[in-house]
Input
Amino acid sequence: MMHKMTWRAALMVGLPSVFLLAFFVAPNAFLLTTSLLKSESQVITNQVTLENFSYLLSRPLYQRAIIRSFWIGAVVGVLVVVLSYPLAFYLARTTSRWKGLLIALSLTPLLASVVVRTYGWWVLLNRDGAINDLVHAIAPGIGVLAMLPSSAAIVIGLTHSLLPYGVLTILSALNGINPHLEKASMSLGATRWRTFWNVTLPLSMPGVVGGFLLAFSLSISAYATPAILGGPATSTMATQIYDFLTSLDDWSLGSAMGAILIFSSMALLVVGVVLGARRQAV
Amino acid sequence: MRRVTPWTGLCAVVALVYAFIFIPIIITASVSFNSINQSKFPPVGFSLRWWNEALTDRWLEPLALSIELAAAAAVVATLLGLPMALVLVRTKFTGRAALEGLVLGPVVLPALVTGIALLQMLQLIGLGSLFGFPALLIGHTIICLPFTVRTIAISLRSMPRRAEDAAANLGASPFRVFLLVTLPLIKSGLFAGGVFAFIQSFTDYSVSLFLAAAGIKPISVTILGFLEFGFTPTLAAVAVITLAVPLMLILVVQRFFRIGDFIYGAQSRG
Output
């Protein structure tokens, strides 16, 4: 059925919509346009071209940054799901009186700024850090372990900061499962394990897929964690964008890299819709 | 001896995951008490001098700016989000999906790109003078809006519509119904949305990184800028303070409103 928006509704959504169009849609449209414009010695011209993209996709440095971002995103996505599933399962089933507090505690990384989240890892992993001190005390022969900067350190840092998103999506999927289905499975003679594998896990898959895609898409656009725990040798799309805009002052390439990030996020969203990932609509 | 049940095994795994969540935070907190100017764990000696340094204007000013910015963004995002949520929940019309997409856009597209895009556009249309607080407020409101709309929408869906009908039947005008019936019934949602928006803004760096101006930098950007001098114990103390701000806000608001009920709906994005 077609409904026309009433005047009153239009008035109500008018201001927020205009705000979003002016300061969210228009800037992103500008950015996509800039990514298609040729720039000559850092000055953007009116000439439409795909050169910016072909440049980014053909240079090994940028190819590697793009591939590294996706690779890190995929590993972080898997780790987030693997670590947050048992936690979410526990939180969904526990009868502890501290349940509320336990849920809140599992979300702490959300409240912490990125520096709180990465600082501790830096203290542990750097050349003079706690782990190297420990190694030196136990087995001085090993020498100094170079754990920073590295992609592995970025993966650890991102997994830590994005874990709450996995817990939230999986927990809400688990909470949405009809408890009678599990009871039915058990009463028909299935063991707890069988019930989990054949009933609970498949029914919670939308949460798992949702958590994975969310961690993936937030990873590929994260700037601070790769900037802090990584280095020039482990640049990602986000750190490259920052370099394009600050030290290189190249808006065309920066916008093109930003456009690649936008397309990637959209693609992940489509994948999520196709796979039926858990996603809260307004 | 008792057999190890799957549940005990699960509890052990869960304990390890909690350790993973808290170890870096505990380390950061303890590092701030080093007596030397090195971020050593376990800390060498004990000293409060880095805390003294963290509590000087150099850090308190950006901290105050971040709190003001987050509060302003939360208020604006709530005011803009309320009519949006009302229309999205209560009315059917063509183009509703497009409007939903528009509202969700800022959580789907990377915040970093939104920040750059805003920077570029403001420069292009000659509004460079907005950099600093106005531009930051615009950018933060954008990334906060999806959270307020979603949280308010949840509370609108779960409130009893009959209360409104009753008030209307008794002759209250639509505006009075809204003011005296609807608003009080969804106030938890309003406050929860505001709190989520505040936290979203307070912990953001992606948008702020590009919209801040000299001397007007939120705490996250100030810390990032300082990192080129390395991780000092002072930064650890500052980091702990930034964790305390949203924590205290939640504890205070939670006393009056059940914001916990909205967590699944509002924070699970994507």
In short: Chain B touches chain A through 97 residues (CB under 8 Å). Residues 55-267 of chain B form a domain with the MetI-like fold fold (CATH 1.10.3720.10).
